[in-house]
Amino acid sequence: MSPLRSLRSVLGALSAGGRRRLALLAALTVIGGLFEFALLASLVALLRQWLGGTAGAAETGSILLFVGAVLATGVIRFALLVLTQRLALDTGHRLIVAVQRRVLARDWPTHVAAHTSGPLAAIEFAEQWLYGVLLPLLQAGAAAVLALGILAALLWYDAPIALAAAGLLVALFAGANLLVRTSMRRSGAAFGDGYEERIAAVQHNVGAMRELILAGARAAAAKRFTRIDREFADARTRMLIAQGVPRILVESVGLAALALAAWWLAQRGGGLIAALPSLAALGLGAQRLLPLLQTINHSLNALTSTGAIQQRMAAMLAEPDLDLSPPPPPLPFTATLALQDVDFIYPGRNEPALAGIDLFLRRGERIALVGPNGSGKSTLADLVMGLLLPSRGEVLVDGRALQPADVPSWQRNVAHVPQAPFVADATLIANIAFMDPAPDRGRVDEAVRLAGLDDLVAALPRGLETRVGDRGQLLSGGQRQRLALARALYAPAPLLVLDEATSALDPASEAHVLRALDELQQRGTTILVIAHRETMLAGCDRVLRLERGRLV
Ligand SMILES: Nc1ncnc2c1ncn2[C@@H]1O[C@H](COP(=O)(O)OP(=O)(O)OP(=O)(O)O)[C@@H](O)[C@H]1O
């Protein structure tokens, strides 16, 4: 995707309001440019009058015009400073939120297949894009207005010289950019890769701390990180150097050209004195024109060098946006849940994970699913929960085929306890009443009791208000599992799926959970238990066995 196309798609991801604010920002920047031009024009007019010796009312008028332009430009500059910062940060905020919404909108298979470093890096990329591309582009817009004005004035003053100077500058910029373009593109792409790799390395080091300590591999991890960060820093250095080269080249050659022009003008009839007004105009023009051209050039360079980052953002923003409407009501589930001749093949796999599955569950039944590792138990559970959709066959709820559009309302019937649950760095109560801004204390206590967490809560000085640490590291493995069970029980759902949910529990805790399952079943909950341990099969109405993706 070309930089301009990806720029368009990034901007397209902003809401209509966001784009309107951006248009306002662009308009303000151009107005700022116009005022700067007015300021410069009045300064030139004033100089001309002074140099020409004109006095009286005309001079007073010019001075008043000049003072007015200075004051107005100051006010506009201040307004621009405030508005630019506000609108720019607002645009950055909108972009970051837009990316996060797309991450949250991903379906389960996409989420599982994606690297976690991508969404994290996207936050930095949004800021890089904002300060590295968008703001420089806006400044370039204002600079272009001013540059065109100055050029027009110079053309009017001395066309041949102005044309020669403008031609030289444009040629210099174009040449310098051609020189560094490839380096800029490559280093920009390496910068984007390096940034993601660096985040992935940090995640790896933090996540694998225990393994690194025990394997005596912390120094190796530090070396690996050093290499990754070195490469990233090198890419960034190359990118910044490539961005800076045109400026140096143009400034030095431009200055030399100005000296040559002065010499050439002095050779014309009348000598240096006669050439002074032309030289002053040229010098003033060049002095103002050069930084403007630098600004324009810098923004175009930024577009090239951050092209890879922008493309990543554009690709993420092209993903479907999240539906923010409130969750739909639960799909009626009164009698049966069935899988009919279901196959499932994971993307990139040749063999189906599940084949020819026929499964029939009555409401209120408790069924166990057993089978060796990799036989497809979790895949089957994911199909039942609507996290995966069958590659062939159908899932039927009360005899009606589940359509993709029904999945969110079907999922409102499901509570799930995985083997390795997610535990937030928050209090016990916040983890149990997950995402509920006003936890219902009665339901929390009931869930704590059923999950057998009451002894732990009673023993903690801060009870349910105890923080459990990052990923629940301040709890034992069994306590984490019981916490996940309590979470699943907090929002009572007609279907409870336990996927190796008690693997870390001691016999007494497991017996407690089995009694809780009996109680839930009596209340009409349908329960699907995936287990390797025989003990968990007690109380199940049926035991189904999966082998190599088939029910046997
Ligand atoms: N996201 C995935 N992408 C590709 N293949 C996958 C994915 N998840 C699982 N598989 C494959 O699907 C097959 C079934 O895996 P599944 O996790 O359902 O087995 P399981 O019976 O639950 O195993 P375990 O008892 O070890 O938990 C395995 O061969 C596994 O490698």
UniProtKB/TrEMBL annotation:
Segments crossing the lipid bilayer: 21-51, 63-84, 129-155, 161-180, 248-266
Domain ABC transporter residues, every copy: 337-552
ABC transmembrane type-1 domain: residues covered: 23-305
Keyword field: ATP-binding, Membrane, Nucleotide-binding, Transmembrane, Transmembrane helix
First-listed, main subcellular location of the protein, grouped into a coarse class: membrane
Membrane topology: Multi-pass membrane protein
SUPFAM superfamilies tied to this protein: ABC transporter transmembrane region (SSF90123), P-loop containing nucleoside triphosphate hydrolases (SSF52540)
GO terms of molecular function: ATP binding
InterPro entries to which the protein is assigned, alphabetical: AAA+_ATPase, ABC1_TM_dom, ABC1_TM_sf, ABC_transporter-like_ATP-bd, ABC_transporter-like_CS, P-loop_NTPase, Type_1_exporter
Subcellular location(s) of the protein: Cell membrane
PANTHER family per UniProt: ATP-BINDING CASSETTE SUB-FAMILY B (PTHR24221), ATP-BINDING CASSETTE SUB-FAMILY B MEMBER 6 (PTHR24221:SF654)
Name of the protein in question: ABC transporter ATP-binding protein
Lineage of producing organism: Bacteria, Pseudomonadati, Pseudomonadota, Alphaproteobacteria, Sphingomonadales
